[in-house]
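Quick entry between incubations.
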Amino acid sequence: MFASKRLGKIQKSLPPGIDLVSAPDFKEWQMDIRVLDSNPLYLNQTYRLRFRFSNNYPIEAPEVTFTTLTTPPRPIPIHPHVYSNGIICLDLLGTQGWSPVQNVESVCMSIQSMLTGNTKNERPPGNEEFVARNTQRPRDIRFVYEDSSV
Amino acid sequence: MESTPEQILASLLDEADAGPTRRRSHHPVDLRALDYVDSYDHNLMCAICHSPFVRPVTLECEHVFCQRCISETMFHQGQDLRTDSATCPSCRRKLHHPATTPVTKILNQILDELRVNCPFRSAGCREVKHRGQIQDHVDKYCDYVEVECPLETCLLPVQRKDIREPRCLHGLVKCEDCRMSFLEKELESHQKNHCEAGKVSCPDCKAQVSRRDLAIHAEICPEAVFPCGAAQYGCDFSAQLETLLDHETTCPLVKLVPFLKMQNERLVAHEAALKHLRQKNSILETSFSTIQETLNPSNNNLIDLPSSSTTGSDTGPFDSTAHHLLSLHESLREEVNRVSAAVEHLDAKASMMIMNANLTIKEDLSHTNAAIAGMRMQLHWLVSARLQNQQRVGVVGTQRSGERLGSTSGNNTAGPSGSVELPVRRLSDSNRQDPKL
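Done. Structure below.
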């Protein structure tokens, strides 16, 4: 479909701090992001993002999570909106917040700026409980956006 | 809203497809999935499908999307464009007005003029068309679109290029080389690309080539030895293709090849023309000699006649005589022409003279006629005068003197005078019809 064509376009140019790691097909992509300024929380760290696209992309939001790797080291960033299993609480990625005019590039930039603006070195409230019992797809989780300042 | 989501989606999609120019087709082309050849302004790109707009519509907030993109988005969000709950994907503004409005025609025209590759490019179609024409191309002209088999009972599809002859290509045929069975429409590609048994090795480069392609391969085989392109004009160089190419850039004979070829062609054409002329000539000569024999057995006078043949001098005595005869014939014809012209001239002159003479004679004749009429009148007058005189002599008798009567009779041409003359004149006047007749 035309969505695959659209995904194909991104490989041409990416903004600084965002790199395409692998895009074997139009189902799942891996991206690396870095924070560009000198925020001490994320300094010299690179994080791996996994995008999963449904057949309805871009009408439907992609599923975006952080993943961990040992080589090269890719931890999950500490952030009040990022659970320790990599699930990101960002309205942009939910059914309500998603808009089809978004793309991989703009999602990466949103996450990048979300990390950049953060000063709290903490996980979201109720992290352990959520990680232990969650079986839902990230997209379907109805987050309560407690704090819109970060 | 009682309708199911499927119905809504179907109706929305129908709306998007039902343009006035769109035709029903087995292969509706999704214009958003096309491969665009032209580069286009990024402002013409739909933010949802990242393709140039297809049937673009404007929202209340003046953001523009493809109709189908915005319909699908709204439907997916559980929002229908026809309700008030819709938001714009770009600015998230609430859309109060239910409907979208189409954009100006000129924008659609610009979009429809973008050139795209045929969607069946992967099947082999190399056409590049304006986007507005691509549906028409796929519906009617594209050779690589799969259409129904010409055999009505056969349900398998076949590419349009294969139905030139209306026959089903879905029968099984055997490849002559590997003895495997294939559908007839696939046989060609099998033999060309896949059949191993049909491969033969090229005698020069040992490469495995399909037997059918051997002739084509032989012409481009890198190992085979070819003669120089000017071999027939005397260059005896021959080598493998690569060396030959170098040689042919320097070989002087190769440069002459086009010229020599042209000369050869001209030579052949001239020979043919010459042969034709020879035949014509011999026919003319035989016929002329027959004429000559019947008219004049001796050929002596031919030599005396002026011979204008200058070209005949270098083609031998045979041709010269023929030319001579021809020129003789020609001069005779001229002579005849001249004589006939002179005759015509004379004829005209003579008829002119006759006409002139005729005119004078006619004039004379009319003069004579007039004179005769005058004389006739006079005669008439004289006769009537004489008659009156005689009557008067009878009535008056002795009253008149004898001398008077005598003078009247003696002067008969001058006419009577005095009281006698007047009544006579009146009579003659009233009888004027006579000379007129």
